[in-house]
Every structure is written in C-alpha cells, then in structure tokens.
Input
Amino acid sequence: MSAQPPPLGTYRGSVHEVDGVGPGIPHAAGSPVGPSGPSGPVAPARAGQQPRGAADVDGVRVGQRFVIPAGELQWRFSASGGPGGQHVNTSNTRAELTYDIAKSAILGPRQRARLVERFGDALRVVAADERSQSRNRELAMQRLAGRLEEALREQRPRRPTAPPRAARQRRLRDKRQRSELKESRRLGPGED
Output
C-alpha cells in the first residue's frame, strides 16, 4: 500500500456530503451533518447575490465608479489589543489594508492626482473593532471604499448670489420696527 494524500474536502479521512451534492464542509465526529449544517439552517444563495466575503475575490467596489482589483490591495494582519482574553493573544484579528494609489492601474489621471493630493501615494485603513478577522476585513474594505468615494466626490463651486428685492425690503422693515421699539423704551413715560 502506498500512502496517498487524502482527497480534497476530507476531514480525518472522511468525506461528508451535504444534501447529496458532494463534498461539503468537514465536521467533527459526532456533529450532525445535513441540510441544517453545524450552525443552523443553510440558506441557498439567491441568483445574482454574491456570497459573504466575495469582495476578497473581486476587489473593493468604490460606489458606482470602479472596482479595485484584489491584486492592488495589500493585507497585513496582527494581534489587536483590548478585551478578549486569551483569544486576543493567539489570533491575528487586526486587519490593515493598504492601497497604493500611485501605482494603481484602474485610476484615471485626474482621479489619481486628486487622491494623491488628499492621501499621498498610498492609503492605509485599519480595522480592529471586532474579534473576528473576517469581520475586520469587511470593515477595512468598507472604510477604504468610503474614504475613496468621499475624496473623489466633486464639490460644485458655489456661485455667490445677491439677495432678492423682497428679502432686502423685509430686512429693512424689521430693522425699522426694531429701531422704533428701542426708541420707545428710551423715552420716559408721557414723553412722545
């Protein structure tokens, strides 16, 4: 007998099928495997809906403008501080996402100039809010997209306008009434 590596989708030498579809998620011995899965009911994916975490495969969508490919993003993970007990000491849940603006291939010259002016050559976003690395990855991608979208939003220049005639007349009328009220307070009783 030759020692061959176990086939993909195996756990300790056993292949599990979920709903008879084929190899599924490996489960520990004794845990129920079936349509409900190990942590509750498994909902089928809807048509056109991406599974959770699919942003890692495609990249980060910045509003309706563009999608930053995953190849242009650099991830770094480290231990995050704060409460969490031993879990904090043993897992790298803090996610740091860096986007190199200067070397990005998807930005146009105006977009690149605008972003470099605002952030420099690279934009770094950190998320350490959650105890889960995957959730911190999602937060970092959302923050990156939000900051880029805000920086690329063009503010329309304000055109100064003169106040309308009715507003000027109303201001002068109110000013005259206020002046008369103060004048009446200054005069003593019976002095008109």
